[in-house]
Amino acid sequence: MQDRRRLTTEEKALKINLNSDIYGSFSEIGAGQEVAANFFKAGGSSGTIAFSHSAYDMKVSDSIYGKAKRYVCEERLITMLKREYNKVTESLADRKEHTRFFSFCNTVESLNYHKTNQGQGWVGLRFQVNPDTKPNNIILHVKMHDQTNTAQQEALGILGVNLVYAAYFHATGELDYFINSLVHHLPKDRIEIDMLHVEGPDFEQIDNRILALNLVKRGITEATMFDQTGKVLQPASKLYKKNILLMRGRFRPVTKVNIDMLNSARTKFYQEEEVEKENVREIFELTLRDLTTGGQISDKDFVDRAELLGALGYTVMISNYLRYYEMVDYLSEITRGYKMGIILGIYNIHNIFDEKYYSHLSGGLLEAFGKGFGRNAKMYIYPAINYNNGELYEFKDVVVPEKLKGLLQYMKDNDKIEGLTEFNYNLLNIKSDEVLAKITRQEEDDTWDSDVPDRVAKAIKFMRLFGYTPKVEPEELKLSKEIHFKL
To answer: How far is CA 91 from CA 51, 85, 101, in A?
Structure first.
């Protein structure tokens, strides 16, 4: 049974040092100098550390790992992990039968002297769970929030020890405890992990999308994302200085009306003067609220939605930003002034102009609009069928409280909001909840597959998503009975 006492950082490092079969190297670029130091200070480090080194000068780093355009990036970290692990295993091949080798690497930018940057970096571990087996990788990106260089380095040192300890004592066990072990002694106001990826023979049962979901669900980060293949991405590195077109929704499942919303907004977005087609990144965003049913978040239900969006080739973001202005504010720090588009269903406009949603802000609604739409962002409003009279409800029909009409007019005059006029009217009656109910019920007259894109319908049927159960055709049922009778 694994020891689940809350050990100190020093105790964790010592426990690893005293395990004679755990042996490897530490290689740290830039500001990440404290991880190896923690193992040295704990005592018994000769039992764990084959070698350690730091490359602070860029030319020295290039001489070891080759030239790079960027030094603090995932690509650089992967190069380090491959080189250092190969060096350890090739140099010490004579002990491979009884040693679990590892290489810990990081490449980090901490707070500079003038405090004009965000401390951040890439941290990774390549390691064996058992001797003489293929290695696994754990790769993560961190943002460091301490206000001094010393405190950021200290936090990174704790994280590094946590990573090695979690890898050897908790990585192949309970997922919850593995994640908790990673951030032990590190609240989010010190270290934020916004990307976590595992791979290797001992992680074949792990879905990295579930890891991404858990980072947000546990408050370790506010947002993370993954591509259509399920690969977890670090938002800042993939969206830096990009034109983002964002659509938020439940997508349970994604329907033809969702795709029409995107297509309609995309056409408008491409026409914006500050938008370059090649620079656009389309994001489907799921919030924790939209993933919650009955107060719980189902991993299976989440993966079903992710599978469908992946089948259509879209990048998915998971966030804990309940309000639109929070998400726009977050993404604007990444896009650095590049134009952003946000696609909204028309009924969301009423929430955005509802003052009660901003009572927690000292500046109320005006503060929210300043944070969100004072940026280089624009809302595209998709119409709907009016709930009350069944008629078309477009942006031109929207009515806001009298005292907010001036704000709405300001948004129009400054090209911050626009109604979408090119859309497929025949799709407006499609509702995700009704489609989901049809999939679940499997009644004879249900024609749900006509309400979703063909690839989505095929994916639901092939992977049996959202509780879909294929109907047995009469001939198939007859054949089944004949075979059973003969047996």
So the answer is: 11, 10, 11
| DSSP letter assigned to residue 200 | S
Residue 360 to residue 363: CA distance in whole angstroms: 9
pLDDT tens digit at each of 487 positions of the chain? 445 567 999 999 999 999 999 999 999 987 778 899 999 999 999 999 999 998 878 888 888 888 888 889 999 999 999 999 999 999 999 999 999 999 999 999 988 777 778 889 999 999 999 999 999 999 999 999 999 888 999 999 999 999 999 999 987 767 778 899 999 999 999 999 999 999 999 999 899 999 999 999 999 999 999 999 989 999 999 999 999 999 999 999 999 999 999 999 999 999 999 999 999 999 999 998 888 777 788 888 898 999 899 889 999 999 999 899 999 999 999 999 999 999 999 999 999 999 998 999 999 999 999 988 888 999 999 999 998 899 999 999 999 999 999 999 999 999 999 999 999 999 999 999 999 998 888 655 568 989 999 999 999 999 888 888 876 554 554 454 454 434 4
Domains and CATH numbers, the chain: 9-206 (3.90.950.20), 237-427 (3.40.50.620), 432-485 (no CATH)
Query: Mind giving me the DSSP string for 19-54?
Result: -TTEEEEEEEEET--HHHHHHHHHS-GGGTEEEEEE
- Write the CB contacts of 258 (distance below 8 Å, at least 6 apart in sequence): 247, 249, 251, 432
